[in-house]
Amino acid sequence: MPPVVPPFLVGLIVAPLAKRLLRPLVSGVVKTSVGIAMEVKKAAHEVGENINDLAAEVTADVVAAQIAAADAGNRAVEESAGHAAGGAKAPKPRAAAAKAH
Questions:
Q1: Alpha carbons 80 and 37: distance in angstroms, whole number
Q2: Mean pLDDT lowest among 15-24, 49-58, 87-96
Q3: Which pairs count as long-range contacts for 68-71, CB under 8 Å and 24+ apart, including other chains?
Q4: Distance between CA 85 and CA 79 in Å, rounded?
Q5: How many Cβ atoms sit within 10 Å of the Cβ of residue 82?
Q6: 78: which residues sit within 8 A by CB, 6+ positions away?
Q7: What is the mean pLDDT of the segment spanning 56-73?
Q8: Computed over its alpha carbons, how large is the radius of gyration of the chain?
Q9: Which ranges are annotated Low complexity under compositional bias (predicted)?
């Protein structure tokens, strides 16, 4: 029968050996993980910027459409008011009248 070695003695012998062998491995894993995390953070930041740019473009398009709709509605009201008044044209705004003279 082989001699029985208590587990704590195995630990005392294996721990320093494992420390020397695993330290570079663990260090490499940590460095790689940090590098990947930094790349993911950078990519997420770029995606956030792209989403903000897209949101700004959509907002500008919506505002432009609302302004165009309001202008079209104002023109329709002016035209219907002109027809209701017997075909008389609506008076020119002062800025336009000053430029005409």
A1: 64
A2: 87-96
A3: none
A4: 10
A5: 13
A6: 90
A7: 92
A8: 39
A9: 82-101
